[in-house]
Every structure is written in structure tokens, then in C-alpha cells.
Design goal:
It is a single chain. The chain is α+β, with helices and mostly antiparallel strands. It has one domain. The chain is about 15% helix and about 35% strand. Strands 3-2-1-4 form a four-stranded antiparallel beta sheet, with no helix packed on it. A hairpin with a 2-residue loop joins strand 1 and strand 2. The N terminus and C terminus are likely disordered.
């Protein structure tokens, strides 16, 4: 198998690539003598609609200033018939009962 096929298969296993990135802070820790890493999602970054740049929305700022950006992928939920394969969204119960804003709805 060529490296191109390997890369394509890995992408297919992740799901459909979406048009935004998710930002994470990665913290190392020790517990009972074992090392681990904790990934905390702190924001999103998406292409600017007018140009080659990006917009980012941060919910927190990392203490050391380092953010790891990873492309977002949709992950299908096989048991949910309402799953949207293009956006990766699953309707929430909050969106259906008018108790709050729907997913991605501006307030």
C-alpha cells in the first residue's frame, strides 16, 4: 500500500473533514507514578469569509500561550437517523423544545 493510500484510509477512519479546526491545550500530569496527558478544548478556528486568513473563538487562554489546532471531523452516530453527515451535527433536545438556542444559533 502506498503512503497516499495509507493517508486516505486514515482520513476515512476519522470521518468527513469539516471546514474548521478545534483548539486544545495539552497538559501533562503524573498520577500514581504514571504519566498522562489531558486535552482540554478551548476554542475553534475557521476560515475567514473574505480572504486567506482565519477567525478564532477562544473560551479560555492557555497560560503558556500554546494551542494545538486539529482539523475537526464528523463522526457518524449509526443509531441516530437525524445525523447530518455533511456537518456532523445531531439535533439536540434543547433545539427541539424552544428552551434555548439551537446548535450554532447566534444569541
Amino acid at each position: 500500500m502506498t503512503s497516499q493510500n495509507t493517508t486516505q484510509n486514515q482520513a476515512n477512519d476519522k470521518g468527513t473533514p469539516l471546514d474548521y479546526y478545534e483548539g486544545f491545550v495539552i497538559r501533562e500530569f503524573r498520577n500514581a507514578g504514571k504519566k498522562g496527558k489531558r486535552w482540554v478544548k478551548i476554542g475553534v478556528m475557521f476560515p475567514h469569509e473574505k480572504g486567506d486568513g482565519f477567525n478564532q473563538i477562544l473560551d479560555a487562554n492557555p497560560v503558556d500561550g500554546e494551542i494545538t489546532w486539529l482539523r475537526a471531523y464528523s463522526k457518524p452516530k449509526k443509531d441516530n437517523a437525524d445525523y447530518d453527515q455533511d456537518t456532523g451535527e445531531v439535533p439536540s433536545s434543547a433545539a427541539a423544545d424552544d428552551s434555548g438556542p439551537a446548535l450554532h444559533e447566534e444569541i
